[in-house]
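Subject: complex prediction, re-run

Hi both,

The earlier run crashed halfway through, so I resubmitted it with identical inputs.
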Amino acid sequence: MTAPTTQTEAAPATVRRPTGTRVTRALGIATLIGLGWFVTFGLFLSPDDAVQLAGVRILYLHVPSAWLAYLAFIVTAISSAAYLSKRTRSLTWDRLAGASAEVGVLFMGITLLTGSLWGRMSWGVYWVWDSRVTTTAFLFVTYLGYLAVRGLGGSHHQRARRSAVVALLSVLEIPLVHFSVEWWRPLHQQESIAKGKLEGLMLFSLFIGVVVFTLLYVWLVMHRQRVLAMEDALDDHGLEFAIAERREEALF
Amino acid sequence: MTSVEVTRLVAVKDLRIELRSRVLVNQVLPFAAIVMVLFAFALDKDDLLARVAPGLIWLATLFSMLFVVQRSFAVEEADGALDALRTAGVPARGIYFGKAIALGLQLVVLEVLLFLAAFVLYNSRVGADGVALLITSALAASCGLGLVGTLYGGLTTGTKGRESLLPLLLLPVVAPVLIGVTQATEAALGVGGISMREGWAWVSLLVTYALLFGIGGSIAFGPLVDDSV
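This time it finished cleanly. Structure:
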């Protein structure tokens, strides 16, 4: 237990402070252009697959979302560990973890949705009990739980420590789930993605998707992280600020 | 006081509270029994019931466990006992293992009842060669569930909406236990076409799980329950 400290590093927000900066604006524009490029290639320029026909285009969305969701959760885990380590303890790490998890949950939802649509098309069912699919679903639920833990209230450091521990426990949980499901239903057919099947423009579309989605992720997380910082600052200083404002009103 | 001593004292304290209040016996066990009866209504076929009995037993265990975990921390919360213990410098590790042992023992009682219910209601049978596997896997699962239940119980204690948050956090985490112990139980009861060898292999998963969460929990429990920063 440490002595009480101030809740955030941020000073009272006396000026209107948008979450955009030159960097995020440039990044946002790059992402938008990239998305246009991605749509052009994914929907128009890349050819149909010999077997899956136009259905293969779902993969251009599915694979980058999955990649992003996993990246997001890795970032959450690393920033949680960074928060828990005494040398690097800062609420910025906590907010980064939270922002990343929120974006990750969104993209994991997209992954599950597009995956089950694709599965219906190529396997005839929306769901198969294979370890990758099931682990993804468990990740989704686990991180919904993580976000619920973040919303529990209490002081900022309390929230940060609690959620950081949960994030690290999830890192312990996920391989166990993956392993046990794999052992339970060892019928996974490696028939699907990018095993030499996709080539040329199709592979390129997928590659653009991964790059663009990564940019999108960085952009979303930067904004979200700043919004979270402002919410924390509002929590800490909002009341003082409002009182000061009313006082000034009374004086004049 | 050493951690081992604290472990023993906390476990004994929790079990004594249970013996005096009889929440497990008067509320949780009847709940588990009624769940077993309801499963029979829902599934409606005698041979099907015998086939799925292992899964039903362990599902009923998981659902009932949620009440036991909540009860285990409700008694601490009432007078701020957990905070008081920590303020007094009692090692968190001792509290964690003590509560986990008490929880695990209560789960064993629960499982005995559920197996008896399955033998009576679902006509489940265990051969002489399956008894050892049945007992070992149930004990290993109880260890894992006790450890992880205590960890997440400590996490949600004193928070708003913990009744619904605990299942949301805990059930995904215990999924490997459910898979492992159900497979081992199927092997022991001779249903589902799983060999004894495979059954014992699943026990190794249960033991690994208990070890991992035992280590993880003993590190994480202290930071989780120390709420005043």
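The two ends of chain B are 25 Å apart (CA to CA).

- K.
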